[in-house]
Automatic annotation (TrEMBL), chain A:
InterPro entries: DMSO/NO3_reduct_chaperone, TorD-like_sf, TorD/DmsD_chaperones. This is Molecular chaperone TorD family protein. The keyword Chaperone applies. Keywords: Chaperone. Pfam families: Nitrate_red_del.
Length: 224, 815
């Protein structure tokens, strides 16, 4: 059962891809978790990264020619306006979007409890100084980053086919029951509300990525 | 961009390289290794019950919080606490909404645009505390600590001790404002002139008759649920007669034995006339009057002579016959009790109304007896930490302009902003508002906003709150406070059984997000400033009190209190007639007798009690005959230990020493078409801090103006019509609710609604930018009500400074 029907070279490829997927999760988690700092903006606005985003039509030249400090300040204010408030904002917590009949729609809702439980039963715990809410978009993405990284490592260990299967199954479960349910809709709201291309593009990318991820895990599971 | 195989590869690489920066390691929130086993998150749900204390209103009832999966899921009353008897009001149960409100503040925010422009940046606590500390230090270094102002709305028990008595005292500032004058301060000040320290507790459980002057006890009261449940039991189970005098058929009036419609601000006239009847019929309590008050029965009769029922009928509209029969019934009830609140007190003549009502109790001998109007009994907690000895300085901006009110013993908070604007008594450089929303809760909202917005008047404005209030909107720094369900306190609200109840508040869940109890923030700032408070957190302070308070300590201290939430001495007996307790001769060492008043106090030989500053603090007892009794302990003013029906203190300031009726000047000059605007409360909201609770706002979100059909007809107003209400300070538009439940001369609006901030549930509207809060998609109602304070002037009772909520003269027309 759960035997892997892939050749070694295919496995290596899958591993590499998983590492990349994990990194994308990581990058998105980072962007949703905090306002970008100067070193991040400098790196983003240079070399390959800059070329890539220009090529993909995700670059508002005018915005990016401002001073790094100014860019950071603008994005910090925009981050707060979009995701924190204090007034109209787009709450980045799953439980406000994903709920069933009879649930109370609130921060720390039913979905929050489920997410917390999944994360903790996968062996992770929240840093003491976090004190935050388990279904913040950045936490869910960080969880996936770590899970997919585990998957990447497992592809290289031939013996661990059943563990690999379980890992991918958990990815699928988390995508199907959580990410997929709310993140695309959330991103749509961000796309409509964003004043800068940066967050609009990030939201677009996130929405897209979640959709491709669903396809990806489904196709991976078909190898078993 | 659409993701495809080609660009994904690149994106992956770029992501990896961007991630290699330090930034991410700082942002990671999850730790540990992924361990995939048999994936089966447990499904059984365990509920933890955590006893604590409510705070949705000032009554602070005992609660039990049920927590499931680290989530607060239900709040019930704590049956172990006698005050609560396991019962809560809807606000208490909706406390959950305070914690998980989608608009909850969970990060410190710093203003980046112009003040009030709405541009914010999240900052870390470290940065927030850095910034505030350096601002405080700057002011402290200038040698003017009084330029640091704390202005609070609700801050009780250990919160008040830690924040005010320890932290702000250590800073050296006494510029600490409260909000009592917009609440019920005038009632307390009037009582201080009569019988000393508040509160008055009506012993409903044992009374035989209740006269209620303008209190909506079933919907609102300082001790709402404890008191209301005892009153309703008296009325329903024992058939106790309760008569409610009110301009409006409140739910209390409706559930009373009788509703007595009365003209606004004339309660005192009725009380005086009742006293007149009782004195004339000889139904008074001779012993109490002669021994414990500072007047004689003949003095009283003489003073009351002009206040006949007929006279009172002309003023109040209450039939003379009714006044007479109720007076007789009341004097014969033995015991009876009078309730009074803002309906009687929030007027130009509020002080006198309250004094007259207290006199009514006194002449019947219903003072501090079983079933009467009692002196409050509360727990006395002991902490081992000493209050800092720092000598504080304060700006004279707390009590209104000099001479505006004779004895504003609970301050004039509604005048603080005006004082700051005028400036001649100094201005705070730092204004910290804690659980207080001055822009919204005072009268003349427009002026409040203008002052708060002006950086020249208030250079640095810090707001500590759980939601973004109208004032937070104008702040420079917003600090997200922990809600009452996430923090520590010992509690000390007065008992309704005359037995002290010790209880605590403990976190049901940890503070959400990065919200933080302001008490803990104070401890952290103190540390940065090198001030040694002796404790470093609210929890430590509460633990210390539990380990040091006699009774609680023996019961098991902190651990016991965490488990049970409350401790009441099983052997304690209800405390009545504490004033009649004789003071032992050995306790009189070092005291002198003030010949003029009979006060026994720790003054210096030759000092005069009445005119010595703060002499009341050295009061020991009252000499009567050749014995010394506890008497009626003075508070805040140098009153004697007698029940002072005759007030020398008032006489000194040019007011009538005996309770009297003062007509309200504006009402004397009213034109035919004008009405008096009064405000009121409903059971499911507090003044300003519950409208963010969706369950409550779903129940109550609209507040049309109550207007009598006869008056409306004359103005061509039909039920539901849009109307404009105009006063000297502004105009509001609302809808008319035609009802016989209001007297013709008055228009009434509840004062809970019409927020323009405090989250989407409170402020009601989605703004143009709203694409956002998904939770609001469920909101089925569009109304948000209207706030009457825009058109109510800030104006004090000339004796005690109480805000005159009920005196505004308005014109009303169809919109
Ligand atoms: S009356 Fe209601 S809101 Fe006030 S303390 Fe009691 S339960 Fe809480």
């Amino acid at each position: 059962m759960n035997m892997l029907k892939k050749k070694k070279t295919d496995r290596q490829q899958s591993s590499q891809k998983a590492f990349q997927r994990s990194d994308v999760y990581g990058l998105l988690s980072l962007i949703y978790s905090q306002e970008p700092d100067e070193s991040f903006i400098e790196k983003l606005n240079s070399g390959n990264s800059r070329l890539f985003f220009i090529k993909e039509g995700m670059w508002d030249e005018k915005f990016w020619t401002q001073s790094v400090k100014k860019i950071c300040e603008n994005l910090a204010v925009e981050y707060t306006r979009l995701f924190i408030g204090p007034k109209d904002h787009i709450s980045p917590f799953e439980s406000l979007y994903n709920f069933k009949k009879g649930d109370i729609r609130q921060i720390w809702g039913t979905a929050t409890v489920e997410v917390k439980r999944i994360i903790e039963s996968a062996g992770l715990s929240f840093r003491k100084d976090y004190g935050g809410i388990p279904d913040h978009i950045s936490i869910e993405l960080e969880f996936m980053q770590k899970l997919v990284k585990k998957e990447a490592e497992l592809w290289n260990e031939q013996k661990n086919g059943s563990l690999l299967f379980k890992t991918i199954e958990l990815e699928k479960k988390f995508i199907d029951e959580h990410l997929k349910v709310w993140i695309p809709g959330f991103c749509q709201k961000v796309i409509e509300a964003a004043r800068y291309d940066f967050y609009r593009n990030v939201a677009e990318l996130t929405g897209d990525f979640i959709v491709t991820e669903k396809e990806e895990v489904e196709s991976l599971l078909s190898f078993f | 961009m659409r993701l495809n195989r080609r660009n994904f590869l690149k994106l992956g690489m770029i992501s990896g390289s961007l991630l290699s920066l330090n930034s991410l390691s700082r942002s990671e929130k999850l730790k540990g290794e992924i361990k995939i086993g048999d994936f089966s998150p447990e499904t059984g749900k365990k509920r933890k019950a955590i006893p604590s204390a409510c705070w949705q209103c000032v009554s602070r009832d005992g609660i039990i919080c049920y927590v499931e999966d680290c989530r607060l899921v239900k709040i019930e009353g704590n049956p172990k606490l006698p005050r609560t008897n396991g019962k809560l009001c809807s606000r208490g149960q909706a406390g959950i909404n305070q914690v998980y409100n989608p608009d909850r503040l969970i990060y410190p925010l710093k203003r980046v645009g112009k003040r009030g422009e709405g541009m914010w940046k999240r900052i870390s606590w470290e940065k927030a505390i850095d910034e505030l500390t350096s601002k405080l230090k700057e002011v402290l270094d200038s040698g003017h600590p009084e330029e640091i102002m704390l202005h609070y709305g609700r801050m009780k028990a250990s919160s008040s001790k830690i924040i005010k008595d320890h932290f702000f005292t250590a800073l050296g500032t006494g510029t600490i404002g409260n909000h009592t004058s917009i609440c019920e301060g005038g009632k307390w000040s009037a009582q201080e002139l009569v019988w000393g320290k508040h509160y008055d507790v009506n012993d409903a459980t044992h009374t035989n008759m209740i006269l209620n002057f303008g209190c909506n006890v079933f919907e609102a009261h300082t001790s709402h649920i404890p008191f209301a449940q005892r009153v309703i039991k008296a009325v329903v189970d024992r058939g106790v007669k309760m008569v409610t005098f009110d301009v409006r058929l409140s739910n209390t009036a409706a559930k009373s034995t009788e509703w007595m419609p009365i003209k606004s601000g004339t309660d005192g006239a009725v009380a005086l006339a009742m006293c007149n009847v009782i004195m004339n019929k000889g139904l008074y309590d001779r012993e109490f009057i002669n021994t414990w008050t500072n007047v004689t029965s003949s003095q009283l009769k003489k003073h009351l002579k002009p206040y006949t029922p007929k006279w009172a009928e002309g003023i109040s509209g209450v039939p003379a016959e009714k006044i007479k029969s109720l007076a007789l019934e009341f004097a014969r009830a033995k015991p009876g009790t009078t309730i009074s609140y803002r309906g009687a007190v929030a007027h130009y003549n509020g002080n006198e109304n309250e004094r007259a009502i207290k006199m009514l109790d006194a002449i019947c001998g219903y003072i501090d007896v079983k079933g009467g109007t009692c002196k409050a009994v509360g727990p006395s907690w002991k902490n081992s930490f000493k209050k800092p000895k720092t000598k504080t300085k304060k700006l004279k901006i707390l009590d209104g302009f000099p001479g505006q009110a004779a004895y504003p013993t609970h301050h004039m908070s509604h005048y603080v902003l005006k004082m700051i604007k005028e400036g001649s008594h100094g201005r705070p450089k730092i204004y910290i508002s804690y659980c207080y929303n001055p822009a919204y809760v005072n009268g003349e909202c427009k002026e409040n906003i203008d002052i708060l917005k002006d950086e020249k008047l208030i250079p640095y404005l810090v707001v500590v709150d759980v939601a973004v209030s109208e004032t937070a909107d104008l702040a420079d720094l917003i600090l997200p406070d922990a809600t009452y369900l996430e923090r520590w306190d010992w509690e000390d609200m007065v008992s309704y059984d005359q037995i002290p109840e010790f209880y605590i508040r403990q976190p049901a869940v940890p503070p959400l997000g990065q919200s933080r109890d302001f008490k803990d923030v104070c401890c952290q700032i103190a540390k940065r400033l090198g001030l040694d408070l002796g404790f470093s957190s609210a929890e430590e302070f509460v633990r210390d009190a539990c380990e040091n308070t006699p009774g609680v300590k023996e019961a098991g201290g902190f651990e016991y209190m965490k488990k049970h939430g409350a401790w009441v001495d099983p052997k304690a007996k209800p405390l009545y007639r504490s004033f009649a307790k004789e003071i032992k001769p050995e306790d009189l060492k070092g005291t002198i007798v003030d010949e003029a008043t009979g006060v026994v106090w720790k003054g210096k030989e030759g000092e005069d009690y009445t005119s010595t500053k703060d002499a009341y603090k050295k009061y020991v007892g009252q000499k009567i005959g050749n014995k010394v009794f506890k008497g009626f302990h003075p508070d805040k003013v140098n009153k004697s230990g007698k029940f002072e029906i005759y007030s020398n203190l008032l006489k000194k300031k040019g007011f009538s020493p005996m309770p009297t009726y003062i007509p309200i000047p504006e009402h004397q000059k009213m034109k035919q078409n004008e009405l008096v605007l009064t405000t009121f409360k409903v059971a499911v909201q507090t003044h300003s801090r519950t409208q963010n609770c969706k369950w409550l706002t779903e129940i109550y979100h609209d507040n049309p103006a109550w207007i009598n059909p006869k008056v409306a007809a004359k103005k061509g107003i039909k039920d539901g019509d849009r109307i404009k209400i105009k006063s000297d300070v502004g105009e509001i538009t609302t809808r008319a609710k035609l009802t016989e439940g209001i007297i013709p001369g008055v228009i009434a609006i509840s004062h809970h609604l019409g927020h323009w901030a405090y989250g989407e549930y409170a402020s009601g509207e989605k703004t143009a930018e709203h694409v956002c809060e998904p939770d609001c998609d469920f909101k089925w109602w569009k109304e948000k009500g209207v706030h009457p304070n825009w058109i109510i002037p800030n104006s004090p009772d000339p004796i005690n400074g109480q805000q005159r909520w009920m005196d505004t003269v308005v014109t009303v027309r169809k919109a």
